[in-house]
């Protein structure tokens, strides 16, 4: 008799705050087939997390980095998590990338059933057509240089090569030099006539994913083969975590027709008006969250210290939804 093996799930998590909320999320997701790997931002006190998140199926990785919004450090943290998780993940594993401010909107049994019934798929949100070369996104995220002025959120500038001879660009560079805000290595990088990417086309999407071990092995092999050039290029890219995996996967899929993609498993609200985005959900969003389609297994983002009641409401509802349709 054939027995369906439970889906092995390896959650990789980036966190910087709210250890109590992180523990609650892990408690809700935990089952005998789930292991959690956590990267705590180097700026944060990891002892706070270890004292609260002490589950036996949790691993805190040692290769921590100072994560800066929109920076290559986000990619580095993800790669460090993948390196550890894939060392002991069996071949049938799904590696699921989430943040410490996510929360499941389906039960562990539902998540298992859904992933098992879609076992031949990978889940990643990305554009099926390349970033248009005449778009603002292409100019700011592909063509120009993103240079950090500090490790503070959004403290960066987007600059052209010096050889663009753009008066406004040259003025900004001069002002930064006078103020001592432009590091020498970044300044000399601007002397390249243009940025050099190994890709002819670039793709983008959200950074959260759920990928099979087999697909991730292909991505990591491609990255290892071109690592120096890729990381040099994406070091000066705005939000590289929303491009690098997507573009690599597209390159692989040109030759490898075995990879099947579906939409990612997260619900994130970027559409609401007159509020900071993405939306931080509250109890008023109960209906919105619980009415998400069957493939939306997680939502973000949440702040338990701002509105913990929404998490209680989700928990009460998902207990009755154990099996995916």
From TrEMBL:
Name the UniProt record assigns to this protein: Peptide O-xylosyltransferase
InterPro entries for the chain: Glyco_trans_14, XYLT
Gene Ontology MF: a single term: metal ion binding
GO cellular component terms listed in the entry, alphabetical order: membrane
Lineage top rank: taxon: Bacteria
Biological classification of the source: Bacteria, Pseudomonadati, Bacteroidota, Flavobacteriia, Flavobacteriales
Alphabetized UniProt keyword annotations: Disulfide bond, Endoplasmic reticulum, Glycoprotein, Glycosyltransferase, Golgi apparatus, Membrane, Metal-binding, Signal-anchor, Transferase, Transmembrane, Transmembrane helix
Major place of residence: endoplasmic reticulum
Annotated compartments: Endoplasmic reticulum membrane; Golgi apparatus membrane
């Amino acid at each position: 008799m054939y027995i369906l093996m439970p889906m092995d799930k390896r959650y990789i998590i980036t966190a910087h705050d709210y250890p109590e909320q992180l523990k609650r999320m892990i408690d809700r997701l935990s089952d005998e087939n789930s292991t959690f790997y956590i990267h705590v931002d180097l700026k944060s006190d990891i002892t706070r997390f270890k004292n609260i998140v002490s589950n036996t199926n949790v691993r805190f990785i040692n290769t921590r980095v100072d994560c800066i919004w929109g920076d290559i450090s986000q990619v580095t943290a993800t790669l460090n998590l993948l390196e550890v998780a894939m060392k002991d993940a069996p071949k049938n594993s799904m590696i699921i990338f989430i943040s410490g401010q996510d929360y499941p909107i389906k039960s562990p049994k539902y998540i298992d059933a859904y992933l098992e019934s879609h076992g031949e798929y990978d889940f990643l949100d990305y554009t099926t057509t390349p970033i248009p070369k005449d778009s603002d996104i292409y100019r700011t995220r592909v063509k120009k240089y993103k240079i950090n002025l500090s490790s503070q959120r959004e403290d960066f500038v987007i600059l052209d090569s010096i050889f663009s001879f753009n008066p406004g660009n040259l003025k900004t560079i001069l002002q930064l030099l006078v103020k001592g805000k432009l590091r020498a290595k970044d300044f000399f990088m601007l002397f390249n006539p243009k940025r050099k990417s190994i890709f002819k086309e670039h793709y983008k999407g959200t950074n959260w994913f759920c990928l099979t071990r087999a697909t991730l092995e292909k991505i990591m092999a491609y990255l290892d083969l071109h690592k120096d050039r890729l990381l040099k290029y994406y070091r000066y890219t705005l939000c590289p975590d929303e491009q690098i995996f997507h573009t690599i996967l597209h390159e692989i899929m040109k030759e490898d027709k075995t990879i099947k993609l579906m939409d990612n498993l997260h619900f994130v609200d970027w559409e609401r008006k007159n509020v900071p985005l993405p939306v931080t959900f509250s109890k008023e969003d109960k209906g919105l969250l619980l009415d998400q389609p069957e493939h939306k297994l997680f939502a973000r983002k949440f702040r338990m210290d701002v509105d913990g009641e929404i998490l209680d409401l989700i928990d009460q509802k998902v207990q009755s939804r154990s099996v995916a349709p």
